[in-house]
């Protein structure tokens, strides 16, 4: 991960500089200078709640995979990972690797530790795309539709959103079939088969759906409140439609804490609704600053909390 770190830093810096230049740095600064602190005071706590909900969602997933972790430990590890995501190149990769290694040091088997982080990350992206699709569907027939000039309809998008929501279920059934055939071939295959056949998969699917929905609604809410702080007033569906590609671009490993790719995506997506480039970039910068504030909090946890943010009894058999 670190071999390409200088290149990623340069790439992220180059993308951000190009976006700022195209949007006019002076105009971006003027937009940020006119921020409404009342909306800002609402946006930051919502952004913090989004990451707190993410940590608790991850905790539920760890429990389903066979062990349990205290809420305080999950929050501590997660906000440490947020700090690493902001400080290390590679978007979310550094923080996710830290979470996985921390679980390993605390006794979580390697397979389950890696799966808890991977499935947690995938469930967030899955729900983000689902909510984005629902947002576009909600505005498909409106005057500011993103679908003008296309053959897509709200009904078709709703069907696609339903299929996207149900996609993990056939994936789980396929994993069970494949793992069952491999069970006798190797010890690692037997472990995979055990994980694939964990009980209460349907209940976990519903819990994961609800938790990921809450996380993304809070994240999009923080993004929209930041927009309102800069005078951008769009319908709820539009914020959902814009946030999905913006957040996905921020997660690309070429970025440094999401900077650069996020601003480029926000400029393009908000521009579809007539938002000036300087204002759109300003909204993205505000959202990035929310992440930096939380990264500062995660850094304080690194400095003040015990190693890994947990006690030795943080894990217990389920």
Describe the structure.
The longest helix is centred in the middle third of the chain and has 29 residues, at 110-138. This protein is an all-alpha fold. The chain contains 13 helices and two strands. Residues 309-318 have low confidence and may be disordered. 42% of the residues are buried. The radius of gyration is 21 Å and the shape is globular. Helix content is 74%, strand content 2%. The chain has a two-stranded antiparallel ribbon with strand order 1-2. It has one domain.
What is Rg?
21 Å
Q: How are helices and strands ordered from N to C?
A: HHHEHHHHHHHHHHE
Helix segment tally: 13
As laid out across the biggest beta sheet, the strand order is 1-2
Measured between the Cα atoms of the first and last residue, the distance is 34 Å
| Fraction of helical residues | over 70%
> Helix/strand-derived class?
mainly alpha
Q: What profile does the largest beta sheet have?
A: 2 strands, antiparallel
Query: How much is the average pLDDT?
Result: 82
Poorly predicted runs of 5 or more residues: 309-318
Number of domains: 1
Overall geometry: globular
Query: How many E strands?
Result: 2
Fraction of residues in β-strands: under 5%
Secondary-structure blueprint:
Elements: H1 5-23, H2 25-33, H3 37-64, E1 67-69, H4 71-87, H5 93-105, H6 110-138, H7 154-166, H8 168-182, H9 187-196, H10 201-229, H11 236-250, H12 261-271, H13 277-304, E2 315-317
Antiparallel strand pairs: 1-2
Helix pairs in contact: 1-12, 2-13, 3-4, 3-6, 3-10, 3-13, 4-5, 4-13, 5-6, 6-7, 6-10, 6-11, 8-9, 10-11, 10-13, 11-12, 12-13
